[in-house]
Amino acid sequence: MFFCWLTECQAFVEEFEGALGKGKGRKLYAYKVMMAKKMIKFNRDFDNFKTACIPWERKIKEVESHFGSSVASYFIFLRWMYGLNLVLFAFMFGLVVLPEVMMGLPYGSIPRKTVPRAEQDRAMDISVLLDFGGYCKYSILFYGFYNDERTIGVLQFRLPLSYLLVGVGIFGYSLMVVIRTMARNSDEGGDGGDDGQFTFAFKMFTSWDYLIGNPETADNKYASITTSFKESIVDEQENQKDENIHLRRFLRVLANFLILCSLGGSGFLIYFVVKRSQEFANLDQDDLSWFEKNEVEFVMSLLGLVCPPLFETIAELEEYHPRIALKWQLGRIFALFLGNLYTFLFALFDEVNAKLEKEKSIRNATIWGLNEYYSNYSSYHNTTDIPPPDIHPADVIRGPCWETAVGIEFVKLTVSDIQVTYMTILIGDFLRAMIVRFLNYCWCWDLEAGFPSYGEFDISGNVLGLIFNQGMIWMGAFYAPGLVGLNVLRLLTSMYYQCWAVMSCNVPHERVFKASKSNNFYMGLLLLVLFLSLLPVVYTIMTLPPSFDCGPFSGREQMYNVVMETIENDLPAFIGNIFTYATNPGLILPAVLLMVLAIYYLNATSKNYQNANLELKKKMQMARDEEKNRRNNKENTNQVMQDLEDLLPNRSLKSPKVAKRPGAAANGKGINIQKDVSLAAPNPKAAVTHPPGPRGPSGNARGPPPGPARGRGRGTPPSRR
Fold first, then answer.
1. Out of 43-57, 313-327, 431-445, 458-472, which region has the weakest mean confidence (pLDDT)?
2. Are 261 and 310 in contact (CB under 8 A)?
3. What is the DSSP string of 447-498?
4. What DSSP state is assigned to residue 694?
5. Which long-range contacts (CB under 8 A, 24 or more apart) does 355-363 make?
6. Which spans does this entry mark as compositional bias, Basic and acidic residues (predicted)?
7. If you ran DSSP here, which 8-state letter would residue 58 be given?
8. Are 441 and 322 in contact (CB under 8 A)?
């Protein structure tokens, strides 16, 4: 004990030696203290600087403080999508667009980079440009503009190979980033509820940040704490709610049946309008109205506006927890968007097949015309040195270039989605809030409490809109390289526009609920969209023949042949052999089987770890409960044991007569109660008020020597005084 006390004193003197001394030691200590405080302040300021450097962090925190973590999770997801698209734009712009602009042939040099003569009169009309025709169609925005030469420029840049690798690499990079984000978020886990106990006590006494010095920040923190209490109250109410299980099951089955009918009807409607648009494409465009030209985009945007509120109304029958209801709503809108998109793709590929047949006939006619020209020129001039036909690029007969047509459809879908989203916010939120705010004083009923009231932020619709839009970007980027840059501008403006709208036009949800601790549900939907977006692109690369007169793969039977050409012409022979062996089905099938077995093993191991963690949590909870019960019942137990002691005979609890210790207190009393036989809790140690006495001859000054009568039931009982 004395040694521990001495160690603590030495540590105290070493720590505050400068403050206790004089002269240089005191100044050095003051300097150290000053530098330590400055370093603490520097670290705090640097952390604040890093937080300030995170894009839109303060905006998102402000939204979270007023609308809860569920609404803030959408803006966090939007910021993450913006960062992902920035990287994709850097790949596409740096490795495809910029080399073509800097080292490729200029506009008007070849037919694929020239507006046809029949379209030049209207190539700059606003109506044509808004439909991405005219000069937009023959620009770097679309696939058909890029040249098919193996190498371009002084650097001998392989543009076709770069185009293919970037088109596939976008999916690879996106897949890697999504899986990495899901793995990082899985450590947080949970479904949004608090696993610990005393939730409300912790929120009450530990939520405030005492370093806040800004009144606006204090107001935001106050609103955040209030919203957090509302979230926890909703969770507690949902956990204690009783329900009629049979009626609830019937209503949920009915709700899912109605939603399935809505999904089937929307898919049939999209397929019908796409077929009508193919019929309109064969007619004169001047005879068509604006609605007939944009019927497909209008119907898809209208379904995206009408169906989500309809699903939300039907979901009221189910009475799920708000967090679970949000996931169901997300899944249903996801099925709607995905079904609409794939219905659009199936109808679009029918149009692609029709364009391929038309292109084949144009190609055969072109080849026949060139052969006739060469034979006539050779027979007339009696020479074999035949120059190419002198035809202006604008007058060359060309095919429909189905890749550019597909890219135009994706760009038009993206632009129409942007227009509908922004107009919905402007009319559905801003104009509605203006009416409620300024007409409430002169209206027949309370507009704020009744119809129309202020709008709530639609989390499910906005999240699925982002995911659906990103799926179109992934699919359309291969046919329209400029689509990624357009999406970056869309996400940048959406962050400011929607932050303004939600803070000025919306009110918090009536039932505020806590978002999931991780965004893995959003990421799971995004991963599924990524996989489904990859399928049409892979089908295009591996199956469909490219156009013969436009794009970087023209003149080849398949798009992936550019890889084989590079291996054969630019790489050593043994690399070609390795690639041939690697693509052998006899090697691919065992590798796929091994990967499936590895995934199964890792999945089983992960489940075992989860079960072990659950068991460990249960044991820790049981240990905490036992410790709490033991601590709560300790006083009652000690009181009962003391009552039992009082009932026992006094002679059984008294020790034998012992001599006084040298240096003991003058009260003359020995030890009457044995420690070994006491049933009550031991008394606390008394304070030391005298120095220790000298040791006796036996070397044991702490108590009487052991004797035959020590302990109960041993030897003869001690004699009474």
1. 313-327
2. no
3. TTTSSS-PEEP-HHHHHHHHHHHHHHHHHHTTT-TTHHHHHHHHHHHHHHHH
4. P
5. 355/399, 355/400, 355/402, 355/405, 356/402, 356/544, 356/545, 358/399, 358/400, 359/399, 359/400, 359/402, 359/547, 359/548, 362/397, 362/398, 362/399, 363/399, 363/548, 363/549
6. 621-634
7. H
8. no
Residue carrying the six token digits 């803070």:
503
Q: What's the DSSP call for residue 145?
A: G
Among 389, 404, 467, 483, CA closest to 137: 404
Angle at 394 between CA 393 and CA 397, to 5 degrees: 85
- Do residues 540 and 163 touch, judged by C-beta distance below 8 A? no
* pLDDT of residue 459 exceeding 60: yes
Contacts of 60 (CB under 8 A, 6+ apart): 72, 75, 76, 79
Which among 500, 644, 516 has a CA at the least distance from the CA of 193? 516
Cis before 452 (ω within 30): yes
Question: Two tokens at 700?
Answer: 């044991």
**Interhelix angle 432-439/483-505, nearest 10 degrees:** 20
Tokens of 22: 């004089």
Q: Is the pLDDT of residue 462 over 90?
A: no
Q: What are φ and ψ of residue 538, in 5° steps?
A: -65, -40
Q: What are the tokens at 107?
A: 């506009």
Rounded Cα–Cα distance for residues 238 and 300 (Å)? 37
Look at the block and give the residue holding tokens 């590929």. Answer: 349
Taking only the tens place, the pLDDT of each residue in 522-554 is 788 888 889 988 988 998 898 888 988 888 998
Strands 455-456, 506-507: parallel, antiparallel or unpaired by DSSP? parallel
3-state secondary structure of 152: strand
Q: How far apart are the first and last CA of the chain?
A: 37
Instruction: Compute the residue count for the chain.
Output: 721
Backbone angles phi, psi at 408, to 5 degrees: -65, -40
pTM passes above 0.90: no
